[in-house]
Amino acid sequence: MNHPKKLLYIGAWDHISPVMHFPKTKEFIFIDTQPRSDFDNKTTCVYRDRFYKKIINICSQYGFTLLSTTILDKNYDKTLILDTTYDDNVLKKYKINPTLLYFVNPVTNQIIKYYISTNIEFNMCDMLKKDIQQCNGLIISGYFPDKILFNYLNTNKFYCYSSTCYDHDPECNNSNIIGSLYTTLYTNIFDITFIIIDRTSGKRLHVCKTIQEVHSFLHEK
């Protein structure tokens, strides 16, 4: 399997194993709205207090050390409606504002840039935009990013992990990238190659040319 130099994964949560499935990929861009919220929107915050420590611990298990932490928007929390229990002292230790965690594995020479509490719809910045545009592969697993991602993507390689439902429900998912691909291709994305990856082993299972083929292959299995 060809390994992209830089992979994008939105909604990664604690699924860090792609760093092993793609050992020749040197840079990973992971993005998640957690710990600020599972289902992020512009006005509320439902904090997941175990997320940050769990990410640090799991990355450490894969040999990655956190080298730096960069807050991308120090004032974003002021735009949110927060629970009254979040006083100033609590907010200082919580990662509510979009933040970049920079990990390095000195053995494999791989890098993870993990954008946490980051929503590509509300928290786009020059650094994040550049990272997304430089990726030459997109991981899809468990979560379908909003179709706004098509405004920034410059890749036509989609790595679709199994154990994800790629069915089409026009009432629910036309706003995300998979639902959109059932109806139309965006002008900046042509001839997408869908590579189906086993979520556990990382083994390449099949190559498809349409999202309908992805669904059919996994459904028939």
Please characterize this protein's 3D structure.
There is one protein chain. This protein has 221 residues and is an alpha/beta fold. The protein is built from six helices and nine strands. The protein folds into two domains: 131 residues, no CATH class; 61 residues, no CATH class. It is 20% helix and 22% strand. The protein has a nine-stranded mixed β-sheet, with helices on both faces. A hairpin with a 6-residue loop joins strand 8 and strand 9. The longest helix is centred in the N-terminal third of the chain and has 11 residues.
Q: Determine the mean pLDDT.
A: 89
Assembly type? single chain
Q: What percent of residues are in strands?
A: 15-25%
> Strand order within the widest sheet?
3-4-5-2-1-6-7-8-9
Q: What tags apply to this protein structure?
A:
221 residues, alpha/beta, nine-stranded mixed β-sheet
Please sum up the structure shown.
The chain is α/β, with parallel strands linked by helices and 221 residues long.
Please render the helix and strand layout as text.
Elements: E1 6-10, H1 18-21, E2 27-31, H2 51-61, E3 65-71, H3 88-93, E4 99-105, E5 110-116, H4 126-134, E6 138-140, E7 157-161, H5 177-181, E8 193-197, E9 204-208, H6 211-220
